[in-house]
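Changelog excerpt

This revision adds worked examples to the README so contributors can see how folded entries look when concatenated. The first example is reproduced verbatim below.
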Amino acid sequence: MIATVLKIGSILAAAPVGVYACFLGLVVNRYFQAHAVYLHAAQMTWFKDLDFPEMFGFLHNQVTPFSLTTTDGETLYAWHILPTGLYYKHESELLSESAGFASDITKRRGFELLRDDPEVVLILHFHGAGGTVGSGYRTPNYRALSAGKPDKIHVLTFDYRGFGRSTGSPTERGLLPDGIAAVEWVTKVAGIPPERIVLFAQSMGTAVAAAIMEHYALESPATVFRGTVMVAPFVDVPTLVATYRIAGTIPILGPLAKFPALFSYLSTFIHDKWLTGDRIAQYVRANEANGRKYRLTFVHAKDDFDVPWTHTPQLFWRAASAAIPGGITFNELEVEKGSIRRDLGEGGTVVEWQTGNGIIREEIVKYGLHDVIMGNSVVTVAVMRILDSN
């Protein structure tokens, strides 16, 4: 009897270990990794037609669906979203047009309103993992982004390759030309100069935006946009998987992170590492070295269960350290931040760091989760602050 109980107990004890071992086997598989990182198979807009954004709460022809083409031949699905105030001024013209997908967006009235106004600002939007341009909290996010100047701020959002109706499959190497295709459309087709372009990114999109920022900052001649707002960013994929907990409670690879050598070995099997911290540091160094102005804002909610808020202070440190000759340690910077940090009570904390050429801002709000925050006023004001800066 005792032997039977012990045998059953040993089996029950070994079962979780076996399951976890099988999970680790999946983790190192490239196909599994792609779906875990990008979640592109989860559309989340199955019963709605993206070609008719009215289904997502927009006005008739407030949004123009169209496509972008990448240099390597992929077709990306995109939305151009008019700010509500501007739509109201031109409502009769927009109502007279047919709705739906635009095979030639340059013939649409909405595009003309973007191209022909010398005071227009465009938010180039990089969404997070999973879903499409119309999923979840993304539609309230677009409204929050343009709310600060509802007759001037347009939004361009697009689905990366492999997402929604876009062709191809997502990879780190592939998403860079996706972002470049969006930038090239904005600057060359719509004719919006970089000083009137703000990059907004959330979650996985912050990694894509960082790659785009670095790419253009290192070009000759360099291109620096008006500013960037990153919501719920992460340092890199290895750090994210080491800190990620399901529902903020159950760690995935956290137990292995306690064994640095083992975790470092497993990290070599991560194919798309998205080294955002390195890219942001390089972006800051390039701008400081060449005397170019830049604005970089990080926003994170403390109750974010998907990407722990502790990633944002790490990224803030990487950016600030890159602006200081010889750098600064994380702990030294935390001491410096203590003297300039503003405590907003239930609103969280704010640190604004001025460098020789840039402003780096860290906003840690107490509430907002991972996605809800995108429709909150902190996003609206972050954009307004960048536009009002010199």
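The second example, added in the same revision:
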Amino acid sequence: MVTSAAKGRTAQSEPDYVARAEALAEGFAARAAEHDRTGSFPFENFRELSEAGLLSLTVPAIHGGAGAGARYTARVLGVIGKADPSTALVLSMHYINHLVMARSPTWPVRLSRKLARESVDGLALVNALRVEPELGSPARGGLPSTIARRTETGWRLSGHKIYSTGSPILKWYLVWARTDEAEPRVGQFLVPAGLPGTRIVETWDHHGLRASGSHDVIFDDVVIPLDAEVDVRKPQDWRAPDVAQAAVHTVFVAAIYDGVARAARDWLITFLKQRVPASLGAPLATLARAQEMLGAIEARLAVDARLIASFAGDFDDGVALSAAESNVIKLTVTNNAVAVVEDALSLTGNHGLSRTNPLERHYRDVLCGRVHTPQDDSTRIGLGRAALGL
């Protein structure tokens, strides 16, 4: 639970960090279309985030970070997500890992302090590498093919990870792997980027979030220290979800796609005010249909804002949350965000789908919200089974 002192520190820093994010967002938005077109990684965005002190937003204050909680961090991610969701996604994974390691009793203190201080001092991002070609999403079960073999001098890691978001800039990988022991254990190993035997294969050529650098990472007998083992357990010990991680992942992902929807809404408003068809002789904004659909967009965005703020606030206040509730928040907000952009497209027709206008890019980006764990079908099945008592 957040102490009153911690709340006070966060409250004092909130306007400053949000203002910093807003100041950077204009430049991020101006560069977003080119990064999307070329699929290039926005290295400059992260240099600016580091210089602004925003990479250490969720690092505990005791280690020099801002010590921000979920509600405030979601606000920052919403600002960045509205400008460039690829940048926001990489940033959110970094934030999630720092929040989790600060709260987790299983994280080795020496390692968590090291990563915290590096994030404060410079450009040092971390993300978890979990998904594999054969395994798919670990959330759906199965043992990873990535293997950590223990030797007298260290672990030797071999495997293939896909969808490794932020791979061009990460300094640290949290690699999901199994041991080669007679009874395999499964969990995370902390691996510095760039070790011999590690290579990034630039496979990311996606419909949306094209600048997220979510490439493949290959590990070929990579040697890491024995104390690089972060949290490795028997497979059955991972069956219960990490509610804290699920909660922050849910609300941060939701904030990003809510930001995309708000960018689409803002462009739509400008379009409706400026577009004057000859047959109408007045701006599209004067049409009742346009006003009604924009009103529906506003309603969805209002619901999303309330869900994100209240859920993140409950997390910060130590309210007991469930993984099922987290999943519902993600499902509702991301689908509302998709509906917002689809409504905007229905009003703008060919203009909205033209690559000369940003709405087409917002649509491709917002659809990615449905891909993140947990996917909609898993959430609905889980809710249905719970309602049936199964």
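Reviewer comment on example two: The first strand starts at residue 125 and ends at 129. The CA atoms of residues 109 and 372 lie 29 Å apart.
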